[in-house]
Design goal:
By secondary structure, this protein is of the alpha/beta class. Helices cover 37% and strands 20% of the residues. The protein is built from 13 helices and 15 strands. Helix 3 runs parallel beside helix 4. The chain is globular.
Length: 386
């Protein structure tokens, strides 16, 4: 469905990636932010503190990151589109309540503007070191959607997408910028309401009998209608495995049924979740697969290499999780070598190797001390491989 957005007119602006996240969230209908200031994500909190009161929304600076995550889960259960923002150390603190959001199927968006870790690390330097934490940071088997913008425009567009995906699938979504993208300034165009598809969560019918409402009903699409707290439809919310009523019953079969549903509601709809862009020609022998700020370097290296007749192409992931396994397998069948530049010691390359399954050689280029990978580093490896 389409709804009125915060910025009704289309206009060009020069803003940071962090500011674009604020604009995208407001455009998607976000009305609640709770969090704690942390570099390099503080501009996001500042933006919401300034803009949310103008539209009747709520901004809360909480006492810590744990409380910030708890507050957005509570706001989501009350029917509001809710978002929080943080960086590495704060993302670590949010994991428990992020797992709770997964279990109770609360639509929330968590923005992680990554910096160099572990621990406090380098607060103002870029990193992609939280990729695996986004997927496996919580205890137990759990599903997550994680998106990674590579520009200010994508920060705006993928924030809207993140909110829509969280609402559609009753699912936490992580938006993974890095310091470079968060603080980069670019000219972008803010869209009008007619140009944006806005998705709201599925709610029970207006005539729903309160005594018959099942908050975790096993529906055909595996996504139960979600009533707002305070709407008159009462239900129990628990981090324990629960049946369709929301109450825990302690049965092994209930745990399996629920975990299968949480998994399948995403994996049955990968075509709606997995986003990527590519430029691979039929005669390209090498592909550079990248994401986030590293993708800017990769695309630059490939484009300049092509001017010297290097047979190389690029593949940019916008969805990190669920991983684009099928698409990477197809890429591996098309080229001889895949190069994976990352601002870490080698995290997503493990998934690339697994998906490639020996069809193509997979090589990594890594920078993990707060410095960007240079185009000439990728160009040198391209020339060596070719």
């Amino acid at each position: 469905m389409k709804t009125k957005i915060f910025r009704p007119e289309k206009r060009a602006v020069l803003i940071q990636g962090d500011q674009a996240v604020v604009e995208g969230a407001l455009a998607a209908g976000v009305e609640f932010f709770a969090g704690y200031p942390i570099t390099p994500a503080s501009e996001i909190a500042e933006g919401f503190a300034r803009e949310l009161p103008k539209i009747g929304g709520k901004f809360l600076q909480m006492e810590d990151e744990i409380a910030g995550m708890a507050a957005v889960v509570g706001a989501s259960l009350a029917g509001k589109k809710a978002i929080t923002a943080t960086s590495g150390p704060g993302f670590a603190l949010k994991q428990e309540n992020l797992g709770f959001a997964t279990m109770v199927e609360a639509p929330v968006v968590v923005v992680n503007v990554q910096r160099v870790g572990p621990s406090t690390g380098l607060p103002t330097s870029p990193s992609q070191g939280d990729v695996m934490q986004a997927r496996w940071g919580r205890n137990g088997d759990q599903e997550i959607i994680a998106l990674a913008p590579a520009s200010v425009t994508e920060s705006y567009e993928l924030t809207i997408k993140a909110v829509n995906l969280s609402e559609k699938f009753r699912q936490p979504v992580v938006l993974m910028l890095d310091e470079v993208i968060g603080h980069l300034r670019e000219k972008i165009y803010l869209s009008t309401s007619d140009e944006i598809e806005i998705i709201d969560r599925k709610r029970p019918a207006a005539d729903q009998d309160p005594d018959q409402y099942l908050p975790y009903q096993l529906t055909d699409d595996l996504i139960p209608p979600m009533a707002d707290y305070g709407s008159g439809l009462k239900y129990h919310t628990s981090g324990l495995f629960h049946d369709q009523s929301g109450f825990p019953d302690g049965k092994n079969e209930t745990a399996k049924l629920m975990q299968d549903r949480l998994h399948n509601k995403l994996h049955n709809n990968l075509d709606q979740i997995i986003l990527y862009q590519k430029d691979i020609r039929k005669d390209d022998r090498v592909a550079v697969l990248s994401y986030g700020s590293a993708a800017r370097t990769a695309i630059s290296a490939v484009n300049t290499g092509r001017k010297d007749n290097l047979k190389a192409g690029w593949f940019k992931l916008q969805t990190i999780w669920p991983f684009a396994e099928k698409e990477v397998a197809e890429l591996a069948a098309q080229v001889e070598t895949i190069i994976v530049p990352e601002l870490n010691q080698g995290q997503l390359i493990r998934e690339v190797k697994r998906a490639a399954a020996g069809q193509a050689k997979v090589l990594g280029i890594n920078s993990y001390a707060g410095e960007l990978i240079k185009p000439e580093e990728i160009r040198a490896l391209l020339e060596e491989v070719l």
